[in-house]
Design goal:
40% helix; 217 residues; 5 strands; alpha/beta; 11% strand; globular; Rossmann fold; disordered N terminus
């Protein structure tokens, strides 16, 4: 089983109504990757509910504003905001098992609202070896295992990671092709007091490096 763009674990009845449904949710952080995933899913005909999570991250206010701008512009609706207890922060601004927490929360919402498709913006640049960080909950193996777990709870749920095989630099190319204003997305773990990106955290370094590679391609 591979959890990539529109691939899934096959349910017992492929003609079931929930399989044919195009209703879903998107975990929208306000960053470039989740915005691209959202617009790609919309282009494939999915009716999406964007969800923004506040979980104690330093950039919550800026991310939330970016998510609101992107959702309103591309879907015509504001994101649903979910406030969670602060996730324990270790190693500076890294959040352990963040994706496990947030995808599980989104799955509960998706199940309750009969929106079986769950979209995430994880891309290949966020694999465990990226920047030497152990992002194990950004790996294809993690997504495959989580897909199996979700369907044990609700067989309707289908996890989509359209960018899982896409290098970060290629995400910039997709954004340009999809008319996404990159400047209005936000990807920084520790923004400065003036809300500018710090330029030093893992997210800033990945974004800057990928953008240079994109412009130099």
């Amino acid at each position: 089983m591979t959890t990539t763009w529109l691939q899934k674990t096959e349910p017992e009845d492929p003609e079931a109504d929930f399989v044919q449904s195009r209703r879903g949710v998107i975990l929208l952080s306000g960053g470039l990757d989740s915005t691209v995933a959202m617009v790609l899913a919309k282009a494939q005909g999915f009716d999406l509910l964007p969800i923004f999570f506040r979980y104690g991250q330093p950039a919550a206010d800026i991310e939330g504003f970016a998510a609101q701008v992107m959702a309103t512009r591309h879907l015509g609706i504001e994101p649903t905001v979910v406030n969670l207890p602060e996730i324990c922060i270790v190693q500076g601004s890294l959040f352990p098992l963040r994706n496990l927490n947030l995808i599980s929360q989104a799955a509960s919402i998706a199940s309750g609202l009969d929106r079986p498709h769950i979209f995430v913006g994880i891309c290949s640049a966020e694999a465990p070896e990226s920047e030497g960080c152990q992002y194990n909950d950004c790996s294809p193996e993690f997504l495959d295992a989580l897909q199996e777990t979700l369907q044990l709870c609700d067989e309707r749920l289908i996890l989509h990671a359209p960018l899982i095989d896409t290098p970060k630099r290629a995400v910039f190319s997709l954004a340009a092709a999809l008319s996404i204003d990159i400047v209005e997305t936000f990807s920084c773990l520790e923004p400065r007091e003036n809300e500018a990106p710090c330029g030093e955290c893992v997210s800033c370094r990945e974004r800057a490096g990928a953008q240079r590679a994109h412009l130099g391609a």
